[in-house]
Amino acid sequence: MTIKIDLPPSLEEEIRDEAGRAGMSLEDQACLYLHLGKALLEDGREGAIREAARTFLDDRGGDSNGLTDAVQKSIDRYIDRHRT
What we know:
Blueprint: H1 9-22, H2 26-41, H3 48-59, H4 64-81
């Protein structure tokens, strides 16, 4: 399946820069972010990507639960603002 997402120019530039540093294409980097976001937001379903993302954050002093909550609230707020 192919999905086209129109990113704000500033976000596209950030992702493109990060992709370049990682030696990845813009599309692969964006796909990675979607996978990580989905993994963090899955309620009650443990999986390899979710566990890796949470472990990565926790090992570096991050709060994976806090980040998950913040991401979910941001998504909810965005959806509320853009409902038709």
